[in-house]
Specification:
With 379 residues, the protein is of the alpha+beta class. 22% of the residues lie in helices and 39% in strands. Strands 4, 5, 6, 7, 8, 9, 10, 11, 12, 13, 14 and 15 form a twelve-stranded mixed sheet that branches. It has a three-stranded antiparallel sheet with strand order 1-2-3, with no helix packed on it. A hairpin with a 5-residue loop joins β1 and β2. α3 runs antiparallel to α4. It is extended. The chain starts with 17 loop residues before the first strand and ends in a 14-residue tail after the last helix.
């Protein structure tokens, strides 16, 4: 296994550690204020860096040596997150679940990230977005908003994702359903009398259908982290992948990065499921008619490639009644997702208030329903 590569970013002026400045293309020193620009790749180098890997080679574990790296990681024993740390940075708390982190002594051999979307939002901007989102939650504990407003530090972390490209050609069989209507006379009772009415009944004529559809998929995104619920990671969209930059450790200065824990083969299976849903819609449109029944779909995949990329997320973990809740802010757009706790006291108060309103309305309308006499003012 190749040796672990350690990156450090000493300030040219004072020697303190630099950090990446969100929304900029530079590293800044919090000690003396010095700013150092991150070297930008030329167009040819950029295109080469963002080139896709062959999927079949990746699944065979047959990628070139240049595509593999050994990284120093720390594994959370509670949620299983694999956190990578750069330079002299060390973790005492997992950014995913707020549990203590056990620092591993060895390295992990992983597919090297090819590209990264750098942080755009600062920590203060991310906190404002999170506070606004928390303020919109019904029945959330009051301590939740207090926690956010106290300004406890959020963790900026690059989360691993996979992207998949493929050209697909699908043949299908099924049935096309065309709607038509027949008149039917029915008897209904109106004001104690039977009346005859004519109504239109919808029916379907079914015809055999078969054909072929084709679609090219580009950058189907799959979360590479098993420590995050898939729902949270997937709903942080949209991401502007047109802002991807060739991977450079400089973008990680002052931040953490999670090593992927969803293997390439598993991520490929997830991407195929996403593609299958899109292909099914293509088949239904191709069949046409008012309704469709799909009997079979046989898809051939070609030109399959993938990338391993890192996307920026501001993260906060909040503990309530002994359980951890996570809040994520898209570090590019400000989209917020989270696991929300519920306040039993607030829910109980709302239930009692609702019951009181209902009983009050009944009392005002007809107190006898409650077994109460009519007050004098109602007589």
């Amino acid at each position: 296994m190749p040796p672990v590569t350690e990156h450090r970013w000493p300030c040219d002026q004072c020697g303190a550690q630099l950090r990446f400045a969100p929304g900029q293309t530079s590293l800044v020193c919090d000690h003396c204020g010095h700013v150092q620009a991150i070297p930008q790749a030329g167009e040819r180098k950029r295109a080469r860096a963002l080139a896709e890997h062959d999927l079949a080679a990746g699944l065979r574990d047959d990628l070139p040596v240049s595509a593999i790296e050994t990284v120093q990681t720390s594994t959370c024993t509670s949620c299983g997150a694999r956190i990578e740390f750069s330079g002299a940075t060390h973790a005492t708390e997992c950014p995913f679940c707020a549990s203590p982190v056990v620092v591993d002594s060895g390295g992990a051999r992983l597919i090297k990230p090819q590209a990264v979307v750098p942080f755009v939002l600062t920590e203060d901007e991310a906190r404002k977005a999170m506070i606004a989102w928390m303020g919109s939650l019904w029945f959330a504990p009051s301590t939740l908003l207090e926690y956010a407003r106290k300004g406890r530090r959020m963790n900026g972390i690059y989360v691993p994702f996979w992207t998949f490209d493929a050209a697909t050609r699908s043949s299908y069989t099924g049935m096309r359903g065309d709607a038509y209507y027949e008149s039917r006379t029915v008897t209904v009772r109106v004001n104690g009398r039977d009346e005859s009415r004519t109504e239109q009944v919808r029916k379907i004529r079914w015809y055999p259908a078969s054909g072929r559809v084709a679609r090219d998929f580009d950058d189907v995104l799959v979360l590479g982290s098993a420590s995050l619920p898939r729902r949270l990671g997937n709903e942080l969209t949209p991401w502007d992948l047109g802002r991807l930059e060739p991977y450079s450790p400089d973008y990680l200065a002052g931040f953490s990065a999670e090593g992927y824990t969803i293997a390439l083969a598993d991520a490929d299976a997830q991407s195929k499921a996403v593609m299958a849903q899109v292909i099914e819609q293509d088949v239904r449109r191709d069949i046409g008619g008012d309704e469709q029944r799909i009997t079979s779909v046989d898809t051939d995949f070609s030109d399959e490639t993938f990338k391993h990329i890192l996307l920026p997320v501001w993260m906060a973990a909040y503990k309530y009644n002994g359980k951890s809740y996570r809040f994520l802010v898209n570090g590019q757009t400000g989209e917020v997702q989270g696991e929300r706790p519920w306040s039993v006291w607030k829910i109980g108060f709302a239930v009692l208030l609702g019951a009181a309103i209902v009983l009050g309305a009944i009392y005002l309308n007809d107190p006898s329903i409650l077994g109460l006499p009519h007050p004098d003012w109602m007589n």
